[in-house]
Amino acid sequence: MRRRSVLLAGGTGLVASAVAGTALLPDRTEAAPVPRLLTDATWHAPDPAADGAWLARGSVPGTGGPWEAMVRQALLDVRALTGANGAVAAGPAAAWNHAWPRDSAFAAVALARTGHLDEAAAVLGFLAAVQLRDGGFEARYLLDGSGTPDDRQRQDDGAGWALWALRGVLDAEPATAADRAPQLRGLLEDALDFVLERTSGGDRLPDPSPDYWERRERHLTLGTVAPLLAGLRAGAAGLVHLGERRRAREVSAAGEHLAGLVHAEFAPGGYARYAGRGEPPGEPDAAVTFLLPPFTARADPGVLAAFDRYQVAAARPAGGLAPGAGWRRDGVSWTPETALAAFAAACAGRVDQARRWLDWLNAHRTAWGSLPEKVLADGSPAGPAPLAWSAATTVLAVAALPPV
């Protein structure tokens, strides 16, 4: 039962491909034969005049630099994947033609960071509309907001991502944050309630949940707890925008308690996918980026060292990164995780490292300029293109760097 039972109107034209039977299609991470490119330049008919006018209403990070064209296309792809109701399709191909809270959160922040605040607010509005009664989220949603495409298990990180996105949208334009914050109160308070309940007010680690690997988990992953920690910190900042400073201090304290537990449990294993004190033994994972800026205020040296290990252990033949060192050895690079590495490096002040990953992403776009989900061992794009998470994160990575 959802907290707000509404049918959202005005969905994108991509809704039409969210057809019955989607549950029979493979998950994004299922161990299946790797597809070649699933989409082509005809997925979206560009309107140069309208696209140019929309871009001109905001900003294009990296203008005048080597990634300007990539960022322009990424922004236009996020726009095209976002419906009038705020639903962000993960990608244009059928199995990806749903709204994941995680992907939506990054899209909202990218839109806000580039000056498209109304669209960013619409994305948060969609998340608020589909939010569950306990403040959490399903793994993914139909683009009209009417339900879910299958019975996939919930992913608890969604509440953390919603809170992080909410802060990003408010922080993008501080002068209007006080006016925008009350409209987001429901999303903020309910998501905070969820995170606080799952962590007993920051005094315990949450139970295991699927994360961005899209599979069932018997052990707690960094990919679940790190976004919840980021959500508590972001939620405290959101409460400040609402003028609730006392409540903000309480939530901030809960975040610090949870941070202590996260470091105590994951540091012994080098901030790998699973807690270092338990089984199974963990390996470096892209979720380590969630413990770095901008998801936290400072870059912990131990986390930075783990970030370096991840970039070596998860390297793939074409030069990009897999979701983790423990990911299947099929030779495939994944653009969401490679873009996360660029974003984390940029925010941590590792400019050369960030530029290297951005150069790689730029060199592995499709013929029409979009970022695909995957890059095969031979360097060719695969999977759906564009992918909202990759596009949004790439925009944010370039925006975090000093001008070239």
UniProtKB/TrEMBL annotation:
Signal peptide positions on this chain: 1-20
Transmembrane parts of this sequence: none
Entry keywords, A to Z: Signal
InterPro entries, per the entry: 6-hairpin_glycosidase_sf, 6hp_glycosidase-like_sf
GO molecular function: hydrolase activity, hydrolyzing O-glycosyl compounds
Record bears the keyword Signal: yes
One biological process term in Gene Ontology: carbohydrate metabolic process
UniProt protein name: GH15 family glucan-1,4-alpha-glucosidase
Organism from which the protein derives: Kineococcus aurantiacus
Organism ancestry: Bacteria, Bacillati, Actinomycetota, Actinomycetes, Kineosporiales
